[in-house]
Amino acid sequence: MLSLPAPWTLLPKLSEIPKICNFEHDGAALFVQTFLLVGIVVSYLPQHLNIISKGSSEGFSPWFLLLGCTSANSGLINVLALQWESVKCCRHVGFLLCYESLGGIEIVGLQWFVFTIILVLFLIYFPPHLKYVEYRATAHPGHPKNCECEPCEAARAGPQVNTTPEWKLAIALAWVVLIHLLLCLFITTILLYSSPSSPDGVPADRVFVWTTFLGLCSTSLAFIQYMPQLLHTYRTKLVGALSIPAMLIQSPGAALMVYIIASKPGTNWTSWLVYATAGCLQATLLTMCLLWKARQKRLGIDDFGNPLPDAPEGSHFQHHIPSSVPDYGSNLQQPIYSAPIVGAGTEAAEEPGRVVAVTRAVEDAIESTPLLPEQQSSSETKQQGWRKWLAL
């Protein structure tokens, strides 16, 4: 019976392979590498589907995506340059051995790809109410109706629609990501093809300096990347379009990424430090989202702060809202308040029902608030302080 050699030894014989290309097959590492590649896709897929199904990318900070994409660009090119000699070895070894040896490029490249898709979806599903704003120009006071000055012409033109600063910022940051990627690829290509090949696979000094710079930049950007998103999520106290299932998979998966990248030929600490840093920061963001998810459930609101239709009776949004407002009509001899109510808007005077609703809500709040607070023990006071900080 004819037995075929293992796939990773099909081409060519080991004696014909350059010394630098004598890779050792590791079945366990190959399994972990494949599992991690599948896990990256599975972990990011809920985030992609979450944005598409909700039809909105609200909740993402554009600075978070800018820093994340530029960090991913630097990390990808760092690993690609360090493993360039291993890439050239693929013409001397079999497919599976090439696939196994280039695990660092494959993992980092896939991570870069799925994260960049989030930026694309962020632009495609940018909330319309944050993309455009409608405004109406005001005519110059004292000018005749047929005045042809610019303010009067704009006032007669009616409402105008213009892009918001948020949308302009998102477009500008997307261009920055693209230019950064092309510039780094251009510099790396020049350095790799102008540097002599080393028989032991060690990159030239200028390539090593460039890859170290990229690795440190990638780590620094990854650290700064999470700051806007952490602050944004903390201030809004809403999960938004962030996917908790995706972060539950990605946070522990960062440890596996560090292990696989560090074990591949040609890589060094500048290649995996960024993923160790990002994993710790993402775990912090995940913890915050879990806390806000519990808060949303208690308040009866969704991930974007909208009231849920099946919110419980004791929820925050229904506690002070009267179920019905009676039509007092002509029984009111005088308006309840002659002065406008703060926050009711200019239409309050034209809608007595709204005035009554606001009045009843204020009275209900006053009646339900005791004049003197109950005495609390020190432990209860401390617990209340934590709840106040978390707004639970």
From TrEMBL:
This is PQ loop repeat protein. It is found in: Membrane. The lineage of its organism: Eukaryota, Fungi, Dikarya, Basidiomycota, Agaricomycotina. The keyword Amino-acid biosynthesis does not apply. The keyword DNA damage does not apply. The chain crosses the membrane at residues 28-51, 63-84, 104-126, 169-195, 207-226, 238-260, 272-292. One of its GO terms (cellular component) is membrane. InterPro entries: LAAT-1, PQ-loop_rpt. It is a multi-pass membrane protein.
